[in-house]
Write a structure and sequence with these properties.
- The chain is mostly helical.
- It folds into three domains: about 150 residues; about 100 residues, no CATH class; about 150 residues, no CATH class.
- The chain has 15 helices and no strands.
- α1 packs antiparallel against α2, α6 packs parallel to α9 and α6 runs antiparallel to α10.
- The longest helix has about 35 residues.
- The relative contact order is 0.10.
- Bound molecules: protoporphyrin IX containing FE (2 copies) and fe (ii) ion.
- One protoporphyrin IX containing FE binds next to α6, α10 and α12.
- Keywords: Electron transport, Heme, Iron, Membrane, Metal-binding, Respiratory chain, Transmembrane, Transmembrane helix, Transport.
- It comes from Cohaesibacter marisflavi.
- InterPro entries: Cyt_c_oxase-like_su1_dom, Cyt_c_oxase-like_su1_sf, Cyt_C_Oxase_1, Cyt_c_Oxase_su1_BS.
- One of its GO terms (molecular function) is cytochrome-c oxidase activity.
- Belongs to the heme-copper respiratory oxidase family.
């Protein structure tokens, strides 16, 4: 690690991991309520715990992205951050907003609209934090070396922040409300966050495999082009049944089918880089997370997304457990695992230690990934039966839910494995110390280029 200001990333990563723990524990409680519906029904009703589960997820992923930007931009731009102080103020604002939102949810204050439930003042706080971030990181990049990685990262972060404006637009008309809602939700995970993912993955590949920068750059540009080409009009796959014109059924089906391409490219990119690279980097766990992320993203987003994206299929599967199966594996592969990859890569340097606890960290990869895969299969089976009984035969919703109870029990088991893996990851990254580095700074072998 060359630049002092990169250290702010550590605070971001710690906060992210704390919320990661809250998120998966919240998921586990929500999963138990599916098994035993009256569990905590007075104290912590399902809608509240679900809100905490999904909001904590989004916030910690964003904290991870911000931290990753503060970590990698100084190195790419070859200069210190514009302002370390602003970075800490931004983190403080985000954490106050998060705690405020959670406190609000616990007493029933929220704005509705899944994922965008934050009270209005928190939404403004997030906006201010985003502006601080954009100023800080853009001034850093503008005054330093510009690389494809920072260009793509900045483009992604600028666009995703601009999309936040649609979180404030909430018309009376339910069709329009849903339309703007998807501008945030879909255009985040299936357009702008993909650019952030490509940039971080590109950086990790550059560092871990030692391939030439030019090769990484060519892949990056193709990934960005295909992501935007498919993802923007791909929003149409959410416009099938919300009261928008019928042509969206074709536009959505066709363009969202192309959305598989950037995810396939990211997976191919990671494997080709490892195959071509000459370097034997000591941080094997970071490499495992990077390859795992791009692979699981391809299955979760690409394959499980395509599964129900054609309007003829979605007519039956819309809003069933098939959606939940896809949502879990896609978010886990693309964004959770990617964040854990950059934490695994950066934390030893940020804490000035060798890449330590590799075995524990890799065990946590298999526990979490295995758990998520099993959860996805179980929910896919549940969703298939649900679709048939509810949408084809026409049975009542609650009767159908009763016959799915065995799947919900298995989902809870899979979830417990994920939680165990998550706690093991956090433990392996921040608790155990194996060996202190004797020579400071650049002599750190883990920090090698
Ligand atoms: C890092 C891992 C996880 C990620 C990325 C994740 C992501 C999500 C997302 C995106 C949703 C909303 C789904 C939708 O609207 O279709 C959700 C809901 C949910 N998650 Fe998770 N989750 C994770 C871990 C867990 C765990 C460990 C459990 C434990 C069983 C769990 C149980 C649930 C439940 C019960 C819901 C509510 C589903 C519903 O309303 O029917 N999740 N999660
Ligand atoms: C990393 C990228 C992705 C993530 C994180 C993601 C996540 C999600 C989540 C959480 C939902 C549920 C939203 C809700 O109704 O509350 C959803 C819905 C959906 N996703 Fe994705 N997704 C991704 C990529 C894709 C791709 C590439 C496709 C198509 C090839 C796709 C197709 C769909 C469809 C069709 C729905 C609507 C399901 C329904 O009608 O109930 N997704 N996605
Ligand atoms: Fe989408």
């Amino acid at each position: 690690m060359k630049y002092q200001s990169q250290k702010v990333a550590k605070a971001y990563f710690y906060c992210a991991m704390a919320l990661f723990a809250v998120q998966v524990l919240g998921g586990l409680i929500a999963g138990w309520i599916y098994v035993s519906p009256n569990f905590l029904s007075e104290l912590l009703p399902f809608n509240i715990i679900r809100m905490i589960h999904t909001n904590a997820l989004i916030v910690w992923l964003l904290l991870g992205f911000f931290g990753a930007a503060y970590f990698l931009v100084p190195e790419e731009a070859e200069r210190e951050l514009f302002s370390v102080k602003l970075a800490y103020i931004q983190l403080f604002l985000l954490m106050v907003g998060t705690l405020g939102a959670v406190a609000g949810y616990l007493v029933g204050i929220h704005e509705g609209r899944e994922f965008l439930e934050q009270p209005l003042w928190v939404k403004f706080g997030i906006l201010i934090a985003a502006v601080i971030f954009l100023i800080n990181i853009s001034l850093t990049v503008l005054g330093g070396r510009k690389t494809a990685i920072t260009n793509v990262l900045l483009m992604g972060l600028w666009l995703l922040s601009l999309l936040w404006i649609f979180a404030f637009i909430n018309p009376e008309n339910l069709s329009l409300d849903k339309m703007y809602w998807w501008f945030v939700v879909h255009l985040w995970v299936e357009a702008t966050w993909e650019l952030v993912m490509a940039a971080i993955l590109g950086y990790l590949m550059l560092k871990l495999t030692g391939v030439d920068r030019e090769v990484v750059e060519k892949w990056l540009y193709v990934i960005v082009a295909t992501a935007l080409f498919s993802g923007i009009l791909g929003t149409g796959h959410h416009f099938y049944w919300i009261g928008l014109p019928g042509y969206w059924q074709w536009i959505g089906s066709i363009f969202s089918t192309f959305e598989v391409v950037p995810f396939f490219l990211m997976m191919s990119f990671a494997f080709v880089m490892v195959w071509k690279g000459r370097k034997n980097h000591p941080n094997k766990a970071a490499l495992l997370w990077s390859l795992g992320s791009s692979t699981v993203a391809f299955f979760g987003a690409g394959v499980w997304g395509f599964l129900h994206t054609l309007h003829g299929v979605n007519f039956y599967s819309h809003g069933t457990q098939i959606t939940a199966a896809h949502g879990h594996l896609a978010f886990f592969g693309a964004y959770v695992a990617l964040n854990l990859a950059i934490f695994t890569y950066a934390m030893p340097m940020l804490r000035n230690k060798d890449p330590y606890n590799q075995v524990l960290n890799m065990a946590s990869f298999w526990l979490m990934t295995g758990g998520m895969a099993f959860m996805t299969f179980v929910l896919t089976f549940a969703g298939t039966i649900q679709t048939h009984m509810q949408r084809v035969i026409g049975d009542y919703y609650m009767d159908v839910q009763d016959s799915l109870s065995i799947f919900y029990l298995m989902r809870f088991g899979a979830g417990a494995a994920v939680v165990l893996g998550a706690l093991l990851f956090i433990y392996s990254t921040i608790v155990v110390r194996k060996r202190e580095i004797i020579t400071p700074g650049d002599a750190n072998p883990a920090a090698g280029e």
